[in-house]
């Protein structure tokens, strides 16, 4: 991946799976109108596939949205993205959307700007979005066959002709504009993510064709989302009995589509007014009165004084250490899987010490490719003499071996073996007197074969 692309996604939680644990976003509900009617959407509520559970608490004006961004950014220092995702379509409300984006760009320039759209008017506004600095756009595209699209969209309103289109004709128009807009945005250097709603028995088996088309157009990421269809949503699909998609259906589609387009697997189908980390919505913690009555100057000063830069630097330092740890794991394992293995050894050379005599466990992290010393844990030995043997401090040993999955030892009795197995720790004498470096890799390979299944059972 190019360095420029890496920079764009580094702190965007939707475009980078690694960033979504560290950086927050805010969605601004400034765009109430929509120019298409999806059968999975009820206009009385947010889109049932972009913003459940719940509805947006309030629709904001651009200046109110700016105030909210500044206030939230002063409190949530890891806020890195401001986006417009509804509750209608961002580009069906161009005046509100562009005014909001320009205000944020001027007053909170460290934030990434992004929008979500159905793509009907994307080609019309792609250049203006690029000029403002929007370099992340999400387009909802559910079908590339107008016959299938006709089953998904009740109507399409075209602002150019001032006409409403239905059926195959409307779906064909929408598809043409979506592809045109995506290609134009991509040519401008914008990262485009496509959301596809998996609708059972309608586009479920069609999404692999969608992903192939996305590959042709240069889409960066494909996000397959399950249809949410419950009677309480009041959508056409819900009223007609079209069921919600299952996670198994989504996973199957992702596997099929992953051949053509990179898949997003950490989406939480956020509200149109979501705040915080993905999956940890804090929108309820920020009321309208917290920011609306304050002046922009006051809020801008708070935002600037929030030590946001220092906070981001600390996040990046942590992520670098985490990446290093992950690199270490990849060096140990062909599939990124490692376990902690305890060894009883007299001098860390061979597996040559009985469990009862051990007063120090050497703990290794091991995979099918190699190992590294993880820690050394001192304990009171289980058997310190004939009188105490069998009544040793097993609870302290169990505590010391917390997190360890496998113990390699020269010999262990039935009672301590049962105690250790009660905490999910396997023991093995088969590597007795073997060199530690050989035993670790062999034991890890066996564990991740039949041994791992036995452990889970």
CATH architecture of the largest domain: Alpha-Beta Barrel
Q: What would you call the shape?
A: elongated
- Helix fraction bin: 25-40%
* Contiguous uncertain segments of 5+ residues: 451-457
Rounded to an integer in angstroms, the radius of gyration calculated over CA atoms is 28 Å
Number of domains: 2
**Rounded average pLDDT:** 87
Q: What structural class is derived from the secondary structure elements?
A: alpha/beta
Query: What strand line-up does the widest sheet have?
Result: 9-8-5-4-3-1-10
Between the first and last Cα atoms, what is the distance in angstroms?
40 Å
Helix count, DSSP H or I runs of 4 or more residues: 15
Sheet-strand content, in percent, reads: 15-25%
How would you classify the quaternary structure? single chain
Main pleated-sheet profile: 7 strands, mixed
CATH class category of the largest domain: Alpha Beta
Number of strands: 15
CATH homologous superfamily title of the largest domain: Aldolase class I
CATH fold descriptor of the largest domain? TIM Barrel
State the order of secondary-structure elements, H for helix, E for strand. Answer: HEEHEHEHEHEEHEHEHHEHHHEEEHEHEH
Describe the protein in words.
This protein is α/β, with parallel strands linked by helices and 457 residues long. The protein has 2 domains: 3-319, TIM Barrel (Alpha-Beta Barrel); 339-456, 2-Layer Sandwich (Nucleotidyltransferase, domain 5). It has 15 helices and 15 strands. The protein has helices at 3-9, 62-75, 94-107, 122-132, 146-149, 167-187, 207-217, 236-240, 247-257, 288-291, 296-304, 308-332, 394-400, 414-421, 436-456, and strands spanning 24-27, 36-38, 79-84, 112-117, 134-140, 153-158, 163-165, 191-198, 221-226, 275-276, 339-343, 360-366, 371-378, 406-408, 426-428. The strands form 3 sheets. The chain has a 7-stranded mixed β-sheet. Strands 13-12-11-14-15 form a 5-stranded mixed β-sheet. A 3-stranded antiparallel β-sheet has the order 2-6-7. Helix 2 (62-75) runs parallel beside helix 3.
